[in-house]
Structures are given as C-alpha cells and as structure tokens.
Amino acid sequence: MNLDDLPIRDDLRGKTPYGAPQIDVPVRLNTNENPYPPSAALVADLAEAVRAQAGELNRYPDRDATALRADLAGYLGHGLRTEQVWAANGSNEVLQQILQAFGGHGRTAIGFEPSYSMHPIITSGTNTEWIQASREEDFSLDPGKAVTAIEEHRPDIVFLASPNNPTGTAQPLETIAAILAAAPGMVVVDEAYAEFAREGTPSALTLLPGHPRLIVTRTMSKAFAMAGTRLGYLAAHPAVVEALLLVRLPYHLSTLTQTAARVALRHRAELLGTVDALRRERDATVTWLRAKGLAVADSDANFVLFGRFPDRRKVWEGLLERGVLIREVGPPEWLRVTIGTGEEMAAFRAALEGVLL
Ligand code: PMP
Fold first, then answer.
1. What is the pLDDT of residue 21?
2. If both were cysteines, with which of 57, 98, 300, 314 could 163 make a disulfide (CB 3.0 to 4.6 Å apart)?
3. Where in the numbering of this chain does the Aminotransferase class I/classII large domain appear (predicted)?
C-alpha cells in the first residue's frame, strides 16, 4: 500500500511535504538559524532548570503558559501585558492557530509574494483559500496596490512578513498602517526576523494600540538562537488571545519547552549579543556580492537573496559540492544564503567564487 491508496483529503493528494533538505555538510546556511550555539553557562542553567522540573513531569504543564507569556511581554516591552501575548511551538504553530480561529472553509487569506511559503501552506491546510498578490520588482510593496488588492478581495486575513522571507525586505510602518486601514479582517505581521532589522526599521508592535485586529508574530528560532526549542509567540489585543484559546490544543506547550524558553529569555543578553555581529556580516555579504556584479536584495534579516542565475540549481549544487549548503528558494533565478559565522561566510565566498569561475 502507498499514500495514494489511503482516503487522504483530495486537496492533499500528490503534494510533497514542506522542508529544506537536512544535509550533513560542513557549512549549513540554508534555514536562517543563528550559527552561534549556547554558551556553557546557558547550557548549565538550562540543565539545572530542567532537572528542577523533571520530578513533576507526571503532571501536565501550565496550560496557559502564564509565566512564560509574562516573560515574553517583558522582553517585547511597548507596555505589553501577559494577556496580550500568546506562545506556541514555533511561530508556524502560532500562524496555524490564527488560521484555525480566523480562517477556515469559505474564508480567504492574502499574501504578497514572493514571501514565506508556509503562509499559503498553512492557509490551505486549514481549508482557507489563498489569494496571491505580488510585490514590486525590487520586492518592496506599493502601498496603493496593496490596498487595492485588499479592497478587491476583502480577505479575512492579510499576511505581511516584515522583514520578508526570502527577500529580506522590511515594510515601513506607513504601509502597514495603510493595510490596517483597508483590511476588513485580521492583519498578521510576521516579524520572525525583527531583531535583525537595520537602524530606523521600527516594529509593527508600535501600531498595536488602536489596532485591535493587528497581530504581530515573533519567534525564538532566529535571533534568539533557540530554533531547537520550538518557541514562537505573538502580541495582539487580549481578545485575539481569547480567540486562540478556543482552537489551541490543551497543554500544547510542554513543561520542558516553557522551561527552556524562560531560561533563554533570562540569558537574552548573551543570545541577542550575536545579532550585531550577524548584521555586520550580512551587510558585508551584500557589499561583496554586489561587487561581484550580482543582483542582491536589500536585507533587514539574517539572510541575503542574490542572483540572477539562469540555472540556479547548478550554482546551488556547485556550492554543495564545495561543502556549503544554501537554499534554492524564492523567484526562479535567485538563491538565498543565511548569514553564518565569519568563517562560514568566508567558506561561502570561496565556494561561490569557485562556482562562478
Ligand atoms: N515566519 C517566517 C517569515 C519564517 O521565515 C519562519 C522560519 N523559516 C517562520 C515564520 C517559522 O519559524 P518558527 O516556526 O521556527 O518560529
């Protein structure tokens, strides 16, 4: 028997699972992780915190993750309170819960592509119809066109990744405000990469007061260097959090996850201490690629989209042969490289020079 013989949903038939290849190579620059592992002090603190909890693992976790949400509210600032913050297993689960509460059969969600490909996948996975709008040639958004698309389709949910994946493009607050004014439903600003933004790129968190249908999602997978922990979160009006409580599975966040995330938040000075170095490495990467005559999208994130290669697969494979794994994603002639350590980026540059010779 194989998959096709099962009575699987018609809309899942013939699909392949989402996911970047997990290949064991010396230099992995393909999933936008932070390359710096936790320090020995953090690991020791984490082990101690887990040990302290382990004796109670016969009990379910705090179902509402109240202490963790209070810590996350404190980290975000902007006067946010615990009731305005919600957490789940990665921001992907946060997005799924948003769709379960605000999307569904007969409802629609719109996004501006190229953008994060999980937005349409989670949308259709929750039986919500995906509407594809587009970005400009330079991957920015024209606020007028975005508003027109929203007025035309009247979507229940608008997705806006800022900084956007895979392009790195951040949106000015005026564009987000214009979209909020036009949108009849929820507006989700996916800020997975917010901490990497360049000076002068403010967070949509500043728009929360007065915009009860705005949701800002974040993650500890990127700048926080905790991808293995699986902890994503959001900030919104308390009523939005109440809506998500209706669809979340009881005890969705394990005691171990909550504990690890709280330890990481206590160590945030260390974890976020790598962000400046990664930003500098990113800007240097953009400059280097441009000096090579390549097209490079401006980036406010920890990755860079560059091209244009009529046969991008060949370039991707050439890098892989040289031990450097990047991501074949985004518009057809472009590739995306995650910013790694200085040594990893030197290896990337050497490999790319070898491929482009
Ligand atoms: N949003 C965006 C824009 C992303 O790029 C990613 C990770 N690739 C996520 C959300 C999900 O990350 P996680 O589930 O690890 O929080």
1. 82
2. 300
3. 27-349
What pLDDT, on the 0 to 100 scale, is given for residue 200? 86
Residue 135, pLDDT score: 97
Task: Give the pLDDT confidence score for residue 18 in this predicted structure.
Answer: 86
Respond yes or no on whether ipTM tops 0.90. Answer: yes
Element spanning 182, H or E: helix 173-182
- List, in order of start, the domains of the chain with CATH numbers: 21-38+273-356 (3.90.1150.10), 40-266 (3.40.640.10)
Pairing mode, strands 108-113 and 129-134: parallel
Say yes or no to pLDDT of 284 above 90.
yes
Mutate to test the pocket of ligand 1, among 86, 92, 217 (most ligand atoms within 8 A of CB): 92
- 3-state SS, residue 327: strand
Whole-angstrom Cα distance, residue 39 to residue 43?
6
Reported as a single tens digit per residue, the pLDDT across 96-137 is 999 999 999 999 999 999 999 999 999 999 999 999 999 999
Predicted TM-score (pTM) of the model is: 0.97
| Separation between Cα atoms, residue 92 and residue 109, nearest integer Å | 15
Mutational test site, ligand 1, from 220, 222, 252, max ligand atoms within 8 Å of CB: 222
Phi, psi torsion values for 40, nearest 5 degrees: -60, -35
Q: State the DSSP string of 253-318.
A: S-HHHHHHHHHHHHTHHHHGGGHHHHHHHHHHHHHHHHHTT-EE---SSSEEEEE--TTHHHHHHH
Q: Which amino acid is at 196?
A: F
